[in-house]
Amino acid sequence: MTYSAVRVRATPGDPGTGHRGTSVMVSGIAVAGWISFGRHLFGIGGDLTVVYAATLGATFAVLLVLAGAAVRRTELRGYRTRPLTHAMLIASGVCAVLFGLTIPDITPAGLQTIISGPNEPALGIAIGVANPLGVVGIATAIIALVLAIRDARGRITLVESWDDEEPEAATTSPGIAR
Known about the structure:
By secondary structure, this protein is an alpha+beta fold. It is 56% helix and 12% strand. Strands 1-4 form a two-stranded antiparallel sheet. It has a two-stranded antiparallel sheet with strand order 2-3.
């Protein structure tokens, strides 16, 4: 009895339109814009806007646009995007939106966030929550990008089988014991 396992790439189905990937790309740009410039909508945009746009906004934009392009490529090739990829994209977007609400900026009235304004202790709590939200948002965006790229290549499954044939005695050489 012998065991064999073969890796098999999934066969593609009918190609899709690519709308899901396009919506992920547009959402990624919107999220990056929210992180970079969202405070201006509430009148508390300040000196850190340029820094946030050049660093955090650009990072989220690049990661989510590349993930969206991979999701689009997956759909156009006829493969399925796994639910975990969608979950990571949604988690990254939710963390990014919450991050945009809690990220501080320097204004003439002092340090402020959208949800707390300049009031303590809410300001300190919002700033304390902002850092983990940013880290988790970027981490889930990276995970979503990796998963989306793997989905675009086609899922690989393992096909296992047991062969019940008896081993032949003639195939063994005299000096090698099995």
